Amino acid sequence: MKKAGKTLLCFAIVCVLVLCSVFAGKEEKPGKEAAAKTAAAKETDSVLEIKKGAKERSQYIIAIDAGHQQHANSATEPVGPGSKTKKAKVSGGAVGVATKTPEYKLTLQVAKKLKKELEEKGYQVYMVRTKNNVNISNKQRAERANKSGADIYIRIHADASSSSSVRGASMLYPSLKNPYVKNLSKSSKKLSNCILKSYCKKTGIKSRGLFTRDDLTGTNWSKIPVTLIEMGFLTNSAEDRYMQKTANQKKMAVGIANGVDDYFGF
Ligand SMILES: [Zn+2]
Q1: How sure is the predictor about 1, in pLDDT bands with cuts at 50, 70 and 90?
Q2: Burial degree of 39 (CB within 10 A; 0-12, 13-18, 19+)
Q3: How far apart are the CA of 225 and the centre of ligand 1, in A?
Q4: Mean pLDDT across the chain
Q5: What is the pTM of this model?
Q6: Do 38 and 135 belong to one domain?
Q7: How many domains does the chain have?
Q8: How much of the chain exceeds pLDDT 90, in percent?
Q9: 82 and 33 inside one domain
Q10: What is the pLDDT of residues 54-73, one digit of tens each?
Q11: How far is the centre of ligand 1, averaged over its atoms, from the C-alpha of 90 (Å)?
Q12: Residues 119 and 101 in one domain
């Protein structure tokens, strides 16, 4: 009899426990629903935020032109739409005083690394050239960038001076008086400023500042905000050597890519 009593008690306890868990389960349900509702609300909020604010990185296209090419093209073309002034289609570019590396090789090396950095961030990238042995005029380069659907156009160059002590990076953009693209001046200045700041911060290269230039064919034919970066001086042996190191080129690319983020507000 004692044994039967214990068994009954055990059965009763088990029943209570089972009932409790059933009720507990029922009580849990509205909690889960509430959580699901909150998650849905959060999702809606973030969707609204994207709609309200800037686009996502993946919705932007960045056009990159690696300045110059293996062989210069001295045939001429108008410096801007409707212009009677003509300049060489592609000039020869500078050569590293210490490493003897031509500018066209350096610009493509950095442009390729910049493409990688921007794509890793999520941007779409359009490359005007991916090889050194091409023949694309500065006007054609701008037209390719325009056609690509890009939002901004970055022209990669390195500087030269008759004085070997001159060093530093600068950005060239169209002025408010530019006869062809004055409407792009303000946005191009902002883009130039964002890139120069982050480029110099990342590389430690001295900033020479922003300069307006209205005589650049590749800038004057652009239909999108455009900047030309002079990454450093090939005529300065320290900067020439710096720019030829792969690890430094990565820093240069990261600096430019971070500037693109700043421009779009990321
Ligand atoms: Zn150049």
Answers
A1: very low
A2: exposed
A3: 19
A4: 87
A5: 0.80
A6: no
A7: 2
A8: 79
A9: no
A10: 579 999 999 999 999 999 99
A11: 9
A12: yes
188: three-class secondary structure by DSSP = helix
The CA radius of gyration of the chain, in Å to the nearest whole number, is: 30
Helix 246-264 vs helix 185-203: angle between axes, to the nearest 10 degrees?
Answer: 140
The parent domain of residue 7 ranges over 1-53
Distance from Cα 148 to the centre of ligand 1, integer Å: 22
C-alpha to C-alpha distance for 12 and 259, rounded to whole angstroms: 71
Nearest to 249 by CA among 86, 108, 77, 62: 108
Kindly state the helix (H) or strand (E) to which residue 207 belongs, with its residue range: strand 207-212
Residues pairing with 93 in the sheet: none
pLDDT number for residue 95: 98
- Distance from C-alpha of 211 to C-alpha of 80, rounded to nearest angstrom: 19
In angstroms, what is the span from residue 15 Cα to ligand 1's centroid?
85
pLDDT in tens, 151-191: 999 999 999 999 999 999 999 999 999 999 999 999 999 99
Choose among 117, 106, 128, 112: nearest CA to 230.
Answer: 106
DSSP 59: G
Cα of 109 vs centre of ligand 1, distance in Å, is 14
Q: Which of 30, 53, 76 is the last residue of a domain?
A: 53
Examine the pLDDT at 42 and tell me if it is beyond 90: no
Say what the pLDDT of residue 20 is. 43
CB 185 within 8 A of CB 174: yes
